[in-house]
Amino acid sequence: MNQYVTGAVIRKLREKNNITQLQLAERLRVSDKTISKWETGDTVPNTETLKLLSREFDVSINTLLGEPRKLICQCCGMPIDDSILGRDKDGALNEDYCKWCYADGTYTYNDMDELIDLCAKNMVNEHFTEEQARSYMKQMLPQLDYWKRYDEMSDHGQFEAFKEQLIKEINDLQIDGLPKVDKLYALAGETVNLEYTLPNGQHVKFLDDQKTYLGNQLEPEFGGDRCFGVLADMDFIMVCTYEKDGENPELMIYKKR
C-alpha cells in the first residue's frame, strides 16, 4: 500500500463529493485530524475503515489504494472497474465479479455453456470469430475462481429455479404478440431503465440504475419495427415495447409479484 497515493485518492473523492474533513470524520466516527493525516500520507486507514470509505464514496477498496490490482471477473473473465462491479447482499461492492455475473449477493450463472453462448457472440469482431471466442472461453473459464470452486460457491440450482419460475409467470400473462420467453439474462439497471411518458405528460423511470435485473429482448410475433422488452426481479414483472435503441418506449404491464 502506498500511503501517499491512498491519501490523494481519499482527498480527491472527498472534494468531488463536496464533503469537508470534519463532515467525513463525523460519518466515519474519527477525528478530522485523522482525516488530515490520511490525506497527507502520514497514516493510512485500517482495513475496516477502508470498508467504510468504500461504502461512503461507493468505490472499491482497490480504487482507494490507487488501483494496484487489475480486476477480472472471476466468472466471465471480463476486465472490471468500479462502474461494473457486482454487489453483495448488503450493497457493498464486490471486487471479484461484474454486475452481470453477481448481483445482490447472488451468482447469476450456473451453466458454463450458457455463459459461453452469451459472451462469444459479443466478442466477435474483424479479428476474432465466434468460433475463436468460444474456444478461448472454454480454455479460460475453468481457470477462474468461480468455476474452480463451483461446487462450494454455487447455490446448487436455486437461482436457476427462480428464473424458471419467472419465465413461467411471464408466459402465463399471454401477452398478444409476445413470443414464448425461454431465457432471462442478467441486465444492468442503467442500460434498461427507460423513461416512459405517462398520460398526464409526466416522464418517469421505474428501475434503479444500480441494480441488476433479469430480462430479455424479443422480436414480436406480428413483425413491425418495435421490440418487446421483458424485465423482472423478486418484486415485479414488467413488459414494454420500444423502437430501435429503446426509443419511444411504451409500458404494457407492470405487475407486482
Notes on the structure:
The structure is a single chain. The chain has 257 residues and is an alpha+beta fold. It contains eleven helices and eleven strands. The chain has a five-stranded antiparallel beta sheet. Helix 1 (3-16) crosses helix 3 (32-40), helix 2 crosses helix 3 and helix 6 crosses helix 7 (130-140). It is globular and about 65 Å long. The chain starts with a helix and ends with a strand.
Features:
257 residues; alpha+beta; 5-stranded antiparallel sheet; 11 strands; 19% strand
How many extended strands?
Answer: 11
* Spatial arrangement of strands, main beta sheet: 5-8-9-10-11
Q: Kindly, what is the distance between the CA atoms of the first and last residues, rounded to a whole number of angstroms?
A: 47 Å
The proportion of residues forming helix, as a percent range, comes to 25-40%
Radius of gyration (Å) = 22 Å
Q: Count of DSSP helices?
A: 11
Shape: globular
Determine the strand fraction and express it as a percent band.
Answer: 15-25%
Give the mean pLDDT.
Answer: 93
Q: Report the major sheet.
A: 5 strands, antiparallel
Uncertain residue ranges: none
Question: What structural category do the secondary elements indicate?
Answer: alpha+beta
* Helix-strand sequence: HHHHHEEEEHHHHHEHEEEEEE
